[in-house]
Amino acid sequence: PGSSFKPFVYSAALDQGFTPASIVNDAPLVYVDPWLDKVWKPQNDNSKFYGPMRLREAMVLSRNLVSIRVLEAIGVDLARRYVLRFGFTPDAVPPNLSMALGTASAAPVAMARGYAVFANGGFLVDPYLIERIEDADGQVVFQARAARACRLCPERLALDLAAPSSDDPAAISGSGAQTAPLAGAETATETDVIEDPTGPNLAPRAIDERNAFLITSMMRDVVKRGTGRAAMALGRNDLAGKTGTTNEYRDAWFSGFNEHLVTTAWVGFDGFTSLGNGEFGAKAALPIWMAYMGKALDGVPEQRLVQPPGITTARVSKETGQLTWPGDPVAMLEYFRVEDLDRLGSEARQNASSTYEIF
Fold first, then answer.
1. Do residues 33 and 194 touch, judged by C-beta distance below 8 A?
2. Reduced to 3 states, what is the DSSP secondary structure of residue 135?
3. Alpha-carbon gap, residue 354 to 359, rounded angstroms
4. Residues 117 and 240 sit within 8 Å (Cβ to Cβ)
5. Residue 19, exposed/middle/buried by CB under 10 A (0-12, 13-18, 19+)?
6. Could you tell me which of 24, 66, 246, 351 has the fewest CB atoms within 10 Å of its CB?
7. Strand partners, 251
8. Neighbours of 244 (CB within 10 A)
9. pLDDT (tens digit per residue) in 251-286
10. Which residues are bridge partners to 240 per DSSP?
C-alpha cells in the first residue's frame, strides 16, 4: 500500500508518546548490511529533504525519511505488534524498517478495514458480503449480525469504563494482539466480539479513541493541503485520507473516509508491472476514490471532528513544535493527549532543544 500504510505506523508512535507536534528530521539515511553486502538509501518521492519538521507536516507531505526515523525510534517489533490491532496478519507485515514505507502486503479490503478503525473511533469491525438471505416464501433464513463500533452505546460506555489501562494490545482489544485477521475469518471468533443476543453486538476496541482522533485530524490535513488536496473539489470539509505509491509506480493507492464511509481505491496490474512513470496515488487512484465518494456522500451531512475526552489544545511553534505564547507570529493550535501536554510542558522547562538531539 505504499505511504497509505504510514498512518498505522504513526498511530503506533502516538501510542508511545509522540505527538503531532513532535519534531523529526527529514534528512538522508544510509543503512549498510555487511552480511549481504548491500546498501539501502531510502528516498523521498521528490528526492528532496526538508530537515526537522513536525509529525503532522510529515504526514501531510508524506516524508519517507521521517517515517523511517519514527519507526526506528519506537522499534520495529513493537510497531509490528501494534499494527496487528488493525486486522493485518503477521506474515503481511515486514519485520524491518521498510514497513515505514508501506511494503506490507495488503488487499484493498484489508486497508479499508484498517482505516475504519480511525473512522469509527478505534474499533475493529469485520467486513461481510451477505446481509440477509430469504427463502422462496420470503422468510429470512440468515441475517448478518455484524459487530458494530457503536461508540455511544450504553453497553460500550460501560465496557470502556471497566477496560484496563494498558499499552498491551490484548488489554485494549480484549482479544489479543492478532485481532481478528481478515484472512480465513468469514465470521469473528467468540473472543473477537462482545455478543449479547438481547443487546448490540459490539466490535472490540483496537486503539484508544484519542489516538484515532489525532490520526484522523492529521489525515484531514492531508486532504486539505497535502498529497490528497485534489479531494477538496468534492466541497466537503470532513474528509480524511492518505495517498500511497509503491516502488517503480507498480501500485497507486488512496484510502480515505469520513465518519460514515471508508473507501480504498487501488490501481495496479496483476503481473506486478509498472503503471508508468509519474503514476502516483494522487494521480491514478485518488480520482477514482473521488468519483465514488462524491456519489456515495451526496446529500449526507458533513460531520465535524468531535474532540473526545482527554484531548486538549495548546499553542506550539510551527518551526520547533515547542509550546509557545499566543503572540508568537509562527504559533498554531495543536491537539494533544492531556498527559502528553503535561509531559511536554515539563520537558520544555528542562531543555527546549532535547527533541532535536534525539532525532
1. no
2. coil
3. 9
4. no
5. buried
6. 351
7. 268
8. 29
9. 999 999 999 999 999 999 998 899 999 999 999 999
10. 257
**Considering the domain 2-121+209-296, what is its CATH architecture?**
3-Layer(aba) Sandwich (3.40)
Please name the residues in contact with 342: beta carbons below 8 A apart, sequence gap of 6 or more: none
Grid coordinates of 250 = 507498480
- Rounded to whole angstroms, the Cα distance separating 197 from 17 reads 39
Q: How confident is the model at residue 323 (pLDDT cuts 50, 70, 90)?
A: very high
Specify the DSSP element, H or E, that contains 264: strand 262-268
- Show Cβ contacts of residue 276 under 8 Å, excluding neighbours closer than 6 positions: 249
CB atoms within 10 A of CB 235: 9
Q: Give the residue range(s) of CATH 3.40.710.10 domains in the chain.
A: 2-121+209-296
pTM summary value: 0.86
Closest CA to 55 of 66, 46, 69, 47: 66
Distances (CA, A) of 340 to 119, 310, 313, 319, 333: 23, 10, 11, 19, 15
**Residues 215, 7: contact at Cβ < 8 Å?**
yes
Facing residues of 327 across strands? none
Identify the burial level of 353 via C-beta atoms within 10 angstroms of its C-beta, where 0-12 means exposed, 13-18 middle and 19 or more buried: exposed
